[in-house]
Amino acid sequence: MKDPLKTYRRRFRSWKNRVRLKGEMESYEAAFASRGLVISDDSATRLALQNRFPGFRPKPKGALSIIAIYHNYNWEDGALKPALEKFGTVRRYDWFKAFDHSGPDWRSSVKAEMNRELVVRIGQWVAGERPDVIFTYLSGELVFPETVQVLRSFGVPMIHFSLNDKEHFVGKVRGGLAFGSRDICRWFDLCWTSTEDALKKYCVEGALPVYLPEGANPELHRPWEQQKTIDVSFVGQCYGNRPETIHRLRAEGIRVEAFGYGWPKGPLSTEEMVRLYSKSRINLGFGGVEGHEETYCLKGRDFEIPMSGGLYLTEYHPDLERVYDLGKEIVTYRGFDDLLANIRHLLSDPQRAEAIRQAGFRRARKEHTWEMRFERVFTLMNLV
Hints:
This protein is of the alpha/beta class. It has 14 helices and 15 strands. It has two domains: about 35-215 and about 370-380, Glycogen Phosphorylase B (Rossmann fold), CATH 3.40.50; about 230-365, 3-Layer(aba) Sandwich (Rossmann fold), CATH 3.40.50.2000. Helices cover about 40% and strands about 15% of the residues.
């Protein structure tokens, strides 16, 4: 039974978030227009980076020396690391191994020390091996602008990678500093965002951005020879409207199984998850951002499920049209009634479902690997 108070609170938070994001976007669009800024195309971006590093000569693919700064929260080592290694040797710095981030007040207790350690360690590595590029997956919550400024002074091309800038470009603000990319992005040479409408925000803040969505690793996300024993499955955390949607589907007679934190069946290992995609006739997706209805962004599973050979049915949002032929490579829905109708139609027409599944697999393999994403970024930077 639904809790009316909980539903009201969720809807209020969603409304409040929409108002905040709308105001933020309008402010950035006004600043972008008033300053006469433009979003650079590939040729202009490449020229700007070549002028920034005039003496650099590109190397063959596989010959780069790369420093990578990121923590493996749950997917990074299976995605970023294998793709980076296609381009050369990778030396990774992970601040979580040296500092305890479990406490609620870690920012006041270890953030400053962590930033000092980061600068010292990367400075030693740069002096010792003179890398070709520094790739980072960081945020203003983790590093101070001054820290990135010092890293920039080492003279090595630096890439900033950020997901969900639709909501988190600014994000929370503490002590005048944003948890997102706002205050640190200008010190990087190239900012890779998976959110297209954040490009103007980066330009206003003095950064050079490029839009590229996430991807998937075909060596990890691949089809398995499995009997399709599950009609509909979902893998992801239990929050927002997800439990209500799953409950309503079951009430309509749909056999759906859910896995992940918060669900009775709990989370799956990566291999179990990929196998599940092949065992399911339909793999369900939700497009929303945690705790914020009607705030959408592309997600890793948008590429991982089709690349794993799964038939993907997910919540519609415009960004999906940039990466798939909707209705032919993946299927989308708008609202519960449309979701239910799509599920029933796909289950009743296995021939059409199979054609969509195969088309989505081919598109993902052809255009949406992490290696392809890095190829584009490193080419823009004149590294390969």
